[in-house]
Design brief:
By secondary structure, the protein is an alpha/beta fold. It has 14 helices and 23 strands. The chain has a 7-stranded mixed beta sheet with strand order 7-6-18-19-20-17-21.
C-alpha cells in the first residue's frame, strides 16, 4: 500500500504555522518547510545568560475573533498567557510624551502651525483609500499643511523612494492613519462624522477602544509561542524542515524538490512564503525586484528601575531621531521587580559603533522622558534586522498582483495563504484571510474530542 502523501506547507511564519496546525487538525499528514534555521520569522526571542527574554521588535499577539484560529494559535498552544485586555500604546511627538495614545497630537504644535494643520484637516473631505500614491494619500487624508509639515518629514526617515512612487498604504504600515486634533470634546465631535472618523483619533486609548484582546507569554517572550506551535505540530506527527530551500515545484506530478536534493511528494501544496520564490520554483519569470527593507538595529537593555510610563510600547515620532519604537516587556506582564527589560527598534547608523549607537538611543529615551531620572541601563545585546519595514513601490505592488494571477493561472490547485493571497498587511487580517483559504480547501479543523 502506498503511503499517504502529506500536505506540504512552505513558509514557517505565523501564517504557515496556522496553516500547518489547521491541516493537521483536519486529520491530514503535514510537512512544514522553512528556509531559515528556525520558524517564526521576526517572532523569535533571545534569552541572555540569566534567562531574560527579548523579542525582535514589538510583538504582542492579538486574538483574531475567529474561534477556530484563536483555538489553534492560543488556546491549544499549551502556554501560560498574560491577558492584555487593553493595549496601552503611547508616543512622543514634538518633545511631548503622551502615554495615553499612539496617535500624534497636533495640538502640541506651535499655535500658528497647529491652526494651519487643523484647518487643512477640516477642509480635507476625501480619504486616502483610493489615492494613487503615498503623496496623494497624505494630502487627501490630512490636508496639505499636516501632510507636508508633519508626515512628510516623519516618513522620510523610513522611505528612500519618492512619495509619489510609493504605495498609498505606506503610512498605515507605520501606524500613521489618524491624529488627535484637539481636546477630548473636539475629537469626539469630529468622530461623529463618517469623514472625520477615519482621520481623527480619540485622545485616550480607553475611549472607543475595540473589543480586540491581546495575549503575551508569561515566560520566554513571543518566541516561546512559536516554539509551542512547532512542538505541538511535531507531537501530532508533523514534520518540520528548517534550513530548507525549495528549488523546484512540479505541480502536475505533485513533487517538490529541495536544494539539498531531497524530493517530496505532496497531496496539496500550501504556500505562505514570498511569492517570487514560488514563481521561480515553478519556472515562471519574475521581472520585478524585491522591495527594499528598512535596515533596523535592535538594542536590548536591562534597567535598574521601571520606565517612567506604564505603556506596553510607544513610538518616538521625531524626524531626527533614530529610535522608532520602544517595547516595555514588564509593563505588558505587570511585573515589578528588577531588572526591567526594554527593547528599542532604531534606524541603523552604519558609520557608528554599537556603543555609539546605543548611547545615542539612550539619550533620546532620556530626553523624551521614557526613562526615569537616574535610571541606569545596561546593553545586553544589539541585533541587526535586515528585513525591517518594507518600502513598497507602486510598481512592486502592481507586479505582485500580476505575479499572483500568473501563479494561480499556472497552478490553480495551489493554496496561496499569508500576505501572498491578498493585499492584507497586518497580522490579524493576514490570519483571517489565511483561515478563509484553508477552510475552503480543507474544511473546518477538529475540536478536542472530535473522533475524526
Amino acid at each position: 500500500m502506498n503511503a499517504v502523501r502529506p500536505v506540504v506547507v512552505v513558509g514557517g511564519g505565523i501564517a504557515g504555522l496556522l496553516a500547518a496546525n489547521w491541516v493537521q487538525a483536519c486529520g491530514l499528514p503535514v510537512v512544514l518547510i522553512e528556509r531559515a534555521d528556525a520558524c517564526g520569522g521576526l517572532l523569535r526571542s533571545y534569552r541572555d545568560e540569566d534567562g531574560n527574554a527579548f523579542d525582535q521588535g514589538t510583538h504582542v499577539p492579538a486574538m483574531t475573533g475567529d474561534a477556530r484560529v484563536d483555538r489553534l494559535l492560543f488556546d491549544e498552544a499549551g502556554l501560560d498567557w498574560q491577558d492584555v485586555p487593553v493595549l496601552r500604546v503611547g508616543n512622543v511627538f514634538a518633545g511631548v510624551l503622551n502615554d495615553r495614545s499612539q496617535f500624534i497630537d497636533i495640538s502640541v504644535l506651535a499655535p500658528g502651525l497647529y491652526q494651519a494643520c487643523f484647518t487643512g484637516l477640516l477642509n480635507s473631505l476625501t480619504t486616502d483609500r483610493d489615492a494613487p500614491s503615498l503623496e496623494a494619500a497624505l494630502l487627501a487624508h490630512f490636508g496639505e499643511p499636516l501632510a507636508r509639515e508633519v508626515f512628510f518629514p516623519l516618513l522620510r526617515r523610513f522611505y528612500v523612494a519618492p512619495f509619489d512612487q510609493l504605495s498609498a498604504s505606506s503610512h498605515r504600515f507605520l501606524g500613521y492613519g489618524r491624529v488627535i486634533a484637539g481636546s477630548a470634546e473636539v475629537c469626539r465631535e469630529l468622530k461623529r462624522s463618517v469623514v472625520y472618523d477615519a482621520k481623527v483619533a480619540f485622545r485616550d486609548y480607553l475611549e472607543g477602544r475595540s473589543a480586540v484582546r491581546h495575549r503575551y507569554p508569561r515566560d520566554g517572550g513571543v518566541g516561546s509561542w512559536v516554539e509551542a506551535l512547532c512542538e505541538r505540530l511535531r507531537a501530532g506527527g508533523g514534520r518540520i524542515l528548517t534550513g530548507a530551500q525549495v528549488q523546484g515545484v512540479d505541480h502536475a506530478a505533485q513533487v517538490l524538490s529541495l536544494a539539498d536534493g531531497e524530493r517530496l511528494g505532496f497531496e496539496q501544496l500550501v504556500w505562505t512564503a514570498p511569492l517570487a520564490l514560488l514563481a521561480r520554483a515553478l519556472g515562471l519569470p519574475v521581472a520585478s525586484a524585491p522591495p527594499r527593507f528598512l535596515p533596523l538595529r535592535l538594542f536590548h537593555f536591562l534597567l535598574d528601575r521601571p520606565a517612567a510610563c506604564d505603556c506596553h510600547y510607544l513610538y518616538l515620532n521625531d524626524p531626527a531621531a533614530r529610535a522608532f519604537r520602544i517595547t516595555l516587556y514588564d509593563n505588558v506582564l505587570e511585573r515589578n521587580e528588577a531588572p526591567w527589560r526594554l527593547t528599542v527598534e532604531a534606524l541603523d547608523a552604519p558609520g557608528e559603533t554599537t556603543g555609539q549607537q546605543a548611547a545615542a538611543v539612550l539619550r533620546e529615551l532620556r530626553d523624551a522622558g521614557v526613562l526615569a531620572p537616574g535610571c541606569e541601563a545596561r546593553l545586553v545585546l544589539e541585533q541587526s534586522i535586515a528585513n525591517g519595514f518594507p518600502e513598497v513601490t507602486l510598481a512592486q505592488e502592481a507586479a505582485n498582483r500580476e505575479l499572483r494571477e500568473r501563479v494561480l493561472e499556472h497552478a490553480p490547485e495551489l493554496v496561496l495563504c499569508g500576505r501572498n493571497a491578498s493585499d492584507a498587511f497586518f497580522t490579524t487580517d493576514v490570519l483571517l484571510d489565511t483561515a478563509t483559504q484553508l477552510e475552503r480547501r480543507f474544511g473546518v479543523p477538529a475540536t478536542p474530542g472530535d473522533p475524526r
